[in-house]
Amino acid sequence: MIKEKKSFVITKYSFVAVILVFVVFPLYYMITMSFRTQSSLYSKLSYLPVDIQSKNYIRAFHSTQFLRGLTNSLLIGVVTTLVALVFSIMAAYSLTILRYRGRDTLGRLMVIAFLTPGALLFIPLAALASTFHLSNSIKGLMAIYLSFTVPLGTYLLIGFFKNLVGELEEAARIDGATRLQALWFILLPLIAPGLVSVGILTFTAAWNELLYSLVINVSPEVRTLPVAILNLQAADETPLGLIMAYSSLAAIPVMFLYFFGQRFIVEGLQSGAVKG
Fold first, then answer.
1. 269 confidence band (pLDDT: 50, 70, 90)
2. Cα–Cα distance between 33 and 243 in angstroms, integer?
3. Average pLDDT over residues 52-81
4. Residue 156's domain spans which residues?
5. CA 261, CA 249: separation in Å to the nearest integer?
6. Domain tally for the chain?
């Protein structure tokens, strides 16, 4: 029995070690390459940190393309997250707490919208953006991002609202609170982990998105950071060191959010599982 338990522990940690290598090595390699020059990358093939320099990062912070892309991505990510949270809260509250005809049908439509691949919708959404004169604009990209972040947030928050005791809102209403007051002061504090996890997932989706930004915003003034990284690659040259420096800097906000919010994400996704 003891040998079987020891064998299981060894197997488990070996499996975790293998997974860790696959997860950590690309990050390590990206950071290592970001400190090397183009000539060093081709003359000295090594996985170890050699010829360490900071030229790529200096070039990045002196690049108008990088700074503009960083500013646009931060603006789009923050605003999209805040607006998506508001709409997701209202939608999830309506689909779980309120009682009206067609509520379940609307819930199923929300799930279908959440499950629809974004790659299937970028052509009609690009056409709509052009029709309503939203192409080449920050607000147009935000509106498109909301079309798939709101269903995601609603789908996750529905589970949290379903886990709440239905009498909580009724008791608050009996005590004289309005629906908005009951939602703000009673229900939302109870689903705080869910709000944090939805916020982080929404920001990550908006921050990393490339396809819609590449197709809809072709003007350099409204490009996001992923598009700025993509445009570093020219027809006759691929500046790997500079691309890795851009990518390393672009990964910092998301890594920061997941590092400090991982407890809320795990707790939120576990307690937000939708009940059948």
1. low
2. 9
3. 94
4. 62-271
5. 19
6. 1
Please, which residues have CB within 8 angstroms of residue 6's CB and are 6 or more apart in sequence?
A: none
| Residue 39 located in a structural domain | no
Mean pLDDT score, 155-179: 80
* Residue whose entry in the numeric block shows the structure tokens 């919208």: 113
- Which CB contacts under 8 angstroms, 24+ apart, belong to 193-196? 193/264, 193/267, 193/268, 193/271, 194/156, 194/157, 194/159, 194/160, 194/268, 194/271, 194/272, 195/85, 195/89, 195/157, 195/268, 196/261, 196/264, 196/265, 196/268
H-run or E-run covering 263 = helix 240-271
* 274: confidence class by pLDDT, cuts 50, 70, 90: very low
Tell me the one-letter amino acid at 145.
Answer: Y
Q: What is the pLDDT of residues 176-211, one digit of tens each?
A: 888 888 888 888 888 888 899 899 999 999 999 998
- Secondary structure (3-state) at 134: coil
Average the pLDDT over 60-75 and give the result.
94
- 218: tokens are 């072709």
C-alpha angle 56/76/130, rounded to 5°? 110
Residue 106 domain-assigned?
Answer: yes
DSSP 196-208: HHHHHHHHHHHHH
> What CATH number has the domain bearing residue 76?
1.10.3720.10
Residue bearing tokens 């908006």: 206
Confidence band of 18 (pLDDT split at 50, 70, 90):
confident
- Asked, for residue 55, whether it belongs to a domain, the answer is no
